[in-house]
Amino acid sequence: MPASIDHRKQAKSLGDSAVVKGYLIAYNVSQMLGWIILMFMIVCHIYREGNVTLLYKEVEQVLLIFQTAAVLEIVHSSLGLVKSNPILTTFQVFSRVFLLWGVVWSVPQVQTEVYVFYFLIAWTITEIIRYSFYFFSLLGGVPYTLKWCRYTLFIALYPVGVMGEVMTIYSALPYVKASGLYSLFLPNPANMSFNYFYYLWFILFSYIPVFPQLYGHMLSQRRKVICGGQHAKQE
Questions:
Q1: Is 165 a catalytic residue?
Q2: Model pTM?
């Protein structure tokens, strides 16, 4: 028991360190600028092309860089540098990184689907707001407008993003089944099998219990922060 108490104290001191604070400010500013650039690219593409068919290929490199960089947030929460729940953070970050690399990047046939645009625009707006919120939180004060956006716009953005994610994975299923992508079939030297097609189905079904819980948690946070007038905490 004493060891765990010492660990919590150490985590708190790390989170209060000026060096750590400087690092977190730099990280959040970098991510905020990255997603702002992504939004600019999205708007320019739609204005120029009038459709979203080839949008993913245009923004792919920037998207992969900044979304994959979010893996650092798992480290931040695990070390106690921020107050986020490590398990919840891991799930949220993994689900996005997996979707990008394991589905969209790996199955080029789905890259022109409109569903990719759905989660892409939802992610981009959400992340610009989220990283701006964290940045101002680290400086000591969040403008109310930004706080309101952080705890209100998700009501529409989260379902749109989830729909885009689910439909993108669903659209990839026929191609994954036909190609045997990332699957391991018997017989083989490892004497084990893995079917990526069924794994994607597992991921799809996992949205059923997880989405309501996360959405309910976010609604609860909104009631505390906006309706209750309490200060927001980094989730």
A1: yes
A2: 0.88
